[in-house]
Specification:
This protein is of the alpha/beta class. It contains 14 helices and nine strands. It has helices at about 15-25, 45-50, 75-85, 100-105, 115-130, 150-160, 185-190, 205-215, 225-230, 230-235, 250-260, 265-280, 285-290, 300-310; strands spanning about 5, 30, 35, 65-70, 90-95, 135-145, 165-170, 195-200, 220. Strands 1-2-4-5-6-7-8-9 form an eight-stranded parallel β-barrel, surrounded by five helices. Strand 6, helix 6 and strand 7 (about 165-170) form a beta-alpha-beta unit. The protein is globular.
């Protein structure tokens, strides 16, 4: 059984990959997508999105990070994959599931699920361009507006050379609305020779086990559920999770990473974003979130979270 940390644009970037892999239980990460659109990207772009490439392709906790590319032109995707391969990533993943309107409007992500033949051409071009020792993998949704081409798309990825396939068990039209249709995955597994990994709507240990049971997939990819509960992968393995106080060291890592890698005007927003997710798994996060709504500085929000986790009283005179 493997537990993979999902890519999520604007949320699960290298900052949270570092934090969540330190929590433990994660076997493999996939980066948020790097968009390929008509040009050969410089090496610095790959390093900006995936600084783990400067650390042997692993997070500081030692978890490998596959680099995800998004695009629709086979030649351009192949050229960029070849350049990326020179940085020796643990793997290259191809995105055929992003539901964002801006991405789909430019012919990428889930829109390609309308054209299995294009998917095949993209995957096979990338596979030919990348050395054999670097796995090429894929991620898809069940379809764009419906599920009529689910198997055709999955087979196109396999036949193009994908080593394994993650299936987010919703269509593009479903967005992130529950439920995820895990019951659709056995048919995909039976049609393919490559491993199929289940993804979508895994928030709790019960969700994790039910997802594996219903889908028949051994491996599961988790995104927002891990952001909300950093100890979820540990709990899924039958180990103790992380209580509210145990998150303090992770908040300190998050604080340092945000301070060093994110522009100041966005820093408080990143803290509020994560704290908002933590409310789902930790009752204590609700009070911290309410107390910190008017805080405008990252340091104020980080200090508030740490005081809460350490059971300390709020500072006299701090913003309400």
């Amino acid at each position: 059984m493997r537990i993979l940390l999902a890519p999520m644009e604007g949320l699960l970037d290298h900052v949270l990959r570092d934090v969540l892999t330190r929590a433990g239980g994660v076997d493999l990460c996939v980066s948020e997508f790097i968009r390929v659109s008509g040009s050969l990207l410089p090496v610095r772009t790959f390093h900006r999105y995936v600084p783990e490439l400067l650390n042997g392709g692993k997070t500081p906790a030692g978890v490998p990070v596959r680099v995800q590319l998004l695009g629709s032109d086979p030649t351009c995707m192949a050229e960029n994959a070849a350049r990326l391969a020179t940085l020796n990533p643990p793997g290259i993943d191809l995105n055929f599931g992003c539901p964002a309107k801006t991405v789909n409007r430019h012919g990428g992500g889930a829109l390609l699920l309308k054209t299995p033949e294009v998917i095949h051409d993209v995957v096979s071009a990338v596979r030919r361009a990348v050395p054999a020792h670097i796995p090429v993998t894929t991620k898809m949704r069940l379809g764009y507006e419906d599920q009529s081409l689910t198997l055709e798309n999955a087979l196109a990825m396999q036949d193009g050379g994908s080593a394994e396939l993650v299936v987010h068990a919703r269509t593009k039209s479903d967005g992130y609305k529950p439920p995820a249709y895990w019951e659709k995955l056995p048919a995909i597994r039976q049609a393919l020779r490559i491993p199929v990994i289940a993804n979508g709507e895994v928030w709790t240990v019960a969700d994790f086990h039910r997802c594996r049971e219903v889908s028949g997939c051994e491996d599961v990819m988790i995104g927002r559920g891990m952001v909300a509960n950093p100890g979820l992968a540990l709990q899924a393995r039958g180990l103790p999770g992380l209580d509210w106080g145990a998150l303090a060291p992770l908040v300190e890592v998050f604080w340092g990473k945000v301070d060093s890698s994110i522009l100041p005007k966005y820093q408080s927003g990143r803290f509020k974003q994560w704290l908002g997710y933590l409310r789902r798994a930790y009752p204590e996060a609700e009070q911290a979130f309410m107390d910190g709504r008017t805080y405008k500085e990252m340091n104020e929000i980080a200090a508030l979270m740490l005081r809460s986790m350490r059971g300390e009283a709020a500072l006299v005179g701090a913003p309400a």
